[in-house]
Design a protein that fits this description.
The protein is mostly helical. It has 9 helices and 2 strands.
């Protein structure tokens, strides 16, 4: 139920706050959502503290598999499969369906799309709610690994920003491929050179921006 509740909250925020900023620079929307995240985090820290609460792994996914070179917990393997399924399902819906075509057209020319009878504000609100629900789903999947706490997403905000920049702004496939690649790279760095694991993502981001400022999958404007 958490992704549903978070998605409904996202729709409410989009309708009451974000919709007022669409005619301004995108930076204002970023600052607003970042500020709201800090407010919500502070409220939950005040109410529940920062120590975190355990979230049990489902019984069906307990245990693991010995792969010879490593022990892979069943739950983590399931999270990888579930995450990739959701990510590529989202990409397919946006890039290969009629609804996705309407959405992409609405981001470029909402007035023209609305002239064809498409209710663009409702479509944007539902899309925003779906995106926020995906973030809630990510929190649910991560809960048994990191515990539930107000700070469980704080350290990921900058990493997510780096993933979007490296993959290319506006490219869903770029975000998926980059996120998976950087996750593997960071994991391998923790094994072979732990001291660099906290900066390897930003080193890659700097190199990519120097070579291709629009990102690996982004388009030059």
């Amino acid at each position: 139920m958490a992704p549903v509740a978070v998605g409904l909250l996202g729709i409410l925020l989009e309708k009451t706050m974000l919709s007022r900023l669409y005619k301004l620079d995108h930076l204002y929307g970023l600052l607003l959502t970042f500020g709201l995240a800090l407010i919500l985090e502070g409220a939950f820290r005040h109410q529940y503290g920062v120590s975190g609460q355990p979230y049990p792994i489902p019984d069906a996914l307990k245990g693991g598999q010995n792969l010879g070179f490593m022990f892979l917990p069943n739950y983590r393997a399931w999270v990888v499969v579930a995450s990739l399924t959701v990510c590529f399902g989202t990409w397919f819906a946006i890039e290969r369906t009629k609804l996705g075509a309407y959405l992409r057209a609405a981001t470029e020319n909402p007035t023209l799309v609305q002239a064809f009878g498409i209710n663009v504000p409702v479509m944007v609100s539902l899309t925003y709610g779906f995106g926020v629900a995906l973030a809630g789903l990510a929190g649910v999947l991560a809960a048994p690994i990191y515990q539930v706490s107000p700070l469980m997403g704080t350290n990921l905000i900058i990493i997510v920003f780096a993933v979007v920049v490296i993959g290319g702004m506006g490219s869903i496939l770029g975000a998926i491929v980059t996120g998976l690649g950087l996750g593997l790279l960071e994991g391998l760095t923790k094994v072979f050179y732990p001291e660099a694991s906290n900066i390897v993502v930003f080193v890659v981001m700097a190199i990519v921006l120097l070579i291709k400022p629009a990102g690996l999958f982004g388009r030059e404007r």
